[in-house]
Amino acid sequence: MLERSRRKKHTEITFVIPAGQACGQVSVVGDFNDWQPGAHPFTEREDGTRSVTVSLPKEQRYGFRYLAHGDYWFNDGQADGQDGHNSVVHT
């Protein structure tokens, strides 16, 4: 799931994964961090979901995926779209 907070010059995208999904450490990787594993790790929220917030320039399109422990890649089913194997977010 994606949550957005639009600002004057950028958009804060909060990537959220449901409680109980994907064991171990998870990070979001994508065009915005050169697909660098671990650059944006998720942290657990009080409700059991996990999230990470990334500030991105407005009016852009980014491909991304989630990477969990054990080289387990997965997509966001509620992303703005899909591009091949990747989820897509529009700022």
Which features would summarize this protein structure in a list?
91 residues, mainly beta, 5-stranded antiparallel beta sheet, 4-stranded antiparallel beta sheet, 0% helix, Ig_E-set, Isoamylase early set domain-containing protein, Glyco_hydro_13_N
Structural class: mainly beta
Average pLDDT, rounded to a whole number, is 94
Element order: H for helix, E for strand: EEEEEEEEE
Number of helices: 0
Gross morphology is: globular
Portion of residues within helices: under 10%
Which consecutive residue ranges, at least 5 long each, have pLDDT under 50? Answer: none
Domain Glycoside hydrolase family 13 N-terminal: 24-69
InterPro entries: Glyco_hydro_13_N (IPR004193), Ig-like_fold (IPR013783), Ig_E-set (IPR014756)
Pfam family, one: CBM_48
Protein name: Isoamylase early set domain-containing protein
